[in-house]
Fold this protein.
Amino acid sequence: MIHLENITKSYNGRPALRGISANADRGEFLYLTGPSGAGKSTFLRLLYRADLPDSGGIVVNGADLLRMRRRDVAEFRRRLGVIFQDFKLLRRRTVAENVTFVLSLLNLPDKDQQRRAYLVLKQMGLQHRMNAFPDELSGGEQQRVATARALVLQPDLILADEPTGNLDPERSHELLELFKTINYQGTTVVVATHDRGLIEAHPARTLFLDRGSLVKDGWGSAS
Amino acid sequence: MNRHSWREVKRQLRESGPAGLVAVVLVMVGSAWGGLLWTVHGWVHTELLAGDRQTTVVAVTRSEGEAATLREALRSRFPFVAAVSLTPRKVQEELAGWFPELSTVLLTLDERSFPPILQVDVAPGQEEAIASFLRSRPEVTLVESSRSWQARLEQAVSRFFLAGLVLALTLLVGCGAVVLLVVRLLVLNHADEIAIMRLIGAHEGDIRRPYLVSASILGFAGGLLGAMLLVGLEFALRTALPALAVEHWLLAALAPAGGLTAAAGAAFGLASLPREP
């Protein structure tokens, strides 16, 4: 599902990732952890092709991202569910519209869009906030909308950047349980987090990054 | 265009605000001006400059007696032509008859403003020989032919049309430029949202289409108002120029033309959108 070969990436001459090589199989659950500035977000940005590496190779979901044509990028991203650290909700659209927007890109009938949006928002406990705008929601609610938007497409791969950063512990564990359930159904899940408690409570394979280098590829939260 | 796109179009139309209104007004003025120019140009060529009109050569004399003498001389030289001497009053009426569109103005002038003349109706192509003969006569102070007047009028109309065309093109470019600015402003305001839409799988077409449609709607509305303004102008001018008529196809074309102009402006405005890496 994910194959990274000796990836390097720098911003304005400052290295963000140094020679990273890693693989993840289809249906795998993977944590990406490390201190702030370790390169977790950069790692994820490369996986959904928001950035291109300076060198190395990346294959995600069967697509070689370096050789991908621009016009194929949108189709590629539609098979991913990305949960952004800063949520990236569409501010001028309601909660329901934020979720149905990705479904509308697939030209699904309106009724199907509404039904699927309702179900996933209900799963996130947000069915009563469907007509609210993002700015009317708390940080935790916005994070759940972002998660709902990522899940509604039933993607092949979920990339979550600090998905529990704004959630209380109970909601965080609920979300991880949800990710696990989705993972059991065959979806590959990559969660970037610095929350060691969360990794200990829901152990899985973990990539440890530090100052742009992959320092350990192991199981659970390790120092 | 799905439901999301139409909602986005509505939002963009609302957000375009006063700048959007300026774009509509510019398209309205531009399309009405272009339509009026086309209509007047057509009217001048059909009504005043028609090539199949019979040519009339007139020779101005100092007195009615000299006009009669000249007529006799002309008949002896060109027996096939029809020539009549006209009194000043008759001259005034004849001129009004030649140009019915200007008759109101001509008939209000003082009779003494018109000289006695000899009027000769000739087939097209003969006027040069007859005009030369008349110029050589001592009774004649001036020789004019309707053909030469038509040529002068045509030249003046061409210059006016050219100037009008430049103005219409300037307005057209202005409309496009304003729409371009409106779209750039919207794109600037929506930069974050556009980036998000890309990240969650929107194609360039999904992003750009609502902007193009919004701009086209502004242009179409401007063109529609321009067509209404043109109809109003036609009614206003009809008392002075009864034969002036706006063609139906022209009225129907103004709104789509406005829409296309605005869409072209929007397309240029969208060129500033950053691309995927």
Q: What stands out?
A: The longest helix of chain B spans residues 3-48.
